Amino acid sequence: MAGLLDLILSYACNLACDYCTITPAMHTRELSAAAVAHALRSGRAAGFDRVSFTGGEPTIRPDLVGLIRAAAALGYRDIKVQTNGLMLAHAANVERLRAAGAARIHVSIHTHDPEAYDRLVRRPGSYPLMVQGLDNALASGLFVVADLILKADTYRKLPAALTWLADRGVRCVDLWYVSLTDGNRGNLASLPRITDVRPELHRALAEARARGLSVRSLHIPRCLLGDDHPHAYDPGAQRVRVVTPDATFDLRDSRLAGRVHVPACEGCEHRPVCPGIRPDYLGRYGDAEIAQTRGLAPSIPPTRLPLLA
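^ thats the sequence. predicted structure below, dont judge the formating
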């Protein structure tokens, strides 16, 4: 059976994003080259035909090109690199990835606003490198996806961000919703209510459709997207095996995936395909928003479920 092998090579990174879930203790942990090789062979034996190299930041790992070559030699038909793009500011680095066998690049844009970007990644002067990296990836002919983070200080700029990306030639965008897990567990202010985000998201998605952008929304239940629910994307609906320095598991069991269906979910038209709400979101805000979409009273108050450590 086909599927995606998602390899988190390490937790090390050349940025320090203010919403990152990676703790200081995690930064020292990585998959050895031998462990990656074993995971690649095991993945092919189990039928996985696509692989993603991520982190942390995989492009700061010296053996990344060799690992990509190994994946290509084993017959993975689609090889992805997930990156913040800074190392791609040197066009030769993009060419090395392409020549080794990479087929797609996902660049974490975070936000398109220069000052907001540098403030978010906490490394002054990074914005021009990210932009150049994105442009180099687009010029390479590789399939490029831009990743944007929806958090309290970015969602209001989402329509402008999608316009900015479309003007640069980006055709595909993934929207990630900030998570209160691990290193970001106590950063409650970073997580906005979905109903507060929805007006800007609705406006942004309308702009995206008008511009021919393909946009996928992760982590927001379909019922809360309303008429925009066709944009909902659940990576865990596919066969995805995640290999980290600490554990191996199916993506649908990840703490970043929706895993809880509340009483109001019963009878919803989206229930058969909806993964549910994330536990960290439910712990922060309860189920009032979901209940309201069904004309029901809330049944789970905020803080009833603990935030995930």
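Residues 82 and 276 are 25 Å apart (CA to CA).
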